[in-house]
Amino acid sequence: MDASRLLVNSRIVPVVVISRLERAVPLAECLLEAGIDVIEITLRTNTALAAIESIANQVPAMTVGAGSLREPGQIGDIIEAGGQFAVSPGATAELIGAAHEYNLPLVPGAVTPGEMMNLFAAGYSLQKFFPAELAGGAPFLKSIHAPLPDIRFMPTGGISVQKAADYLALPNVAAIGGSWITPQHLLDTGNFAEIGRLAAEAIDMSRVKH
Ligand code: 3PG
Fold it and tell me: Kind and range of the H or E element at 119?
């Protein structure tokens, strides 16, 4: 259930809100071309599951997962659509139980050391740190590395290209997530040239040593 093995190539995870299904496949192809092979489609629109399904079927080199997971009942739908992982803003016992039951790799959200320790004890060595910027940002993650050395994070929430390097340089940051690579106005207008540029810029940034 631990999702660590999914984040071995790209350290950048675009968090995407898809409102037009026809954007899903070209977006996945564009990100892949820039070197990003993981995408999180948030379950916030009616088209999210269909977008996951289209990407899973038509862009097999892309690892596609579902974001904003809150209800255990959504897990079966994610798997049926071909989703390979899920990300949740926080964690409940029910959600963890269902992810175990369905064997779905999950990146559960945590923000306090206690939440992080509980999730680690449940088998999650990769966790989402959310909302990253408001919860203390890179300095917070840096300060918890010594006492919690076994936990890796995917900070998400308020991260921009300007802030990315600070996170990526930390030894306990496996990857960073965010919507800055796929802003809604670029998706709405189908501006994949600019999305590709933002993705390539993020990938360049992620090559920093950590
Ligand atoms: C989210 O689930 O909305 C993510 O954390 C993305 O946050 P961002 O839009 O601030 O990058």
Answer: helix 113-121
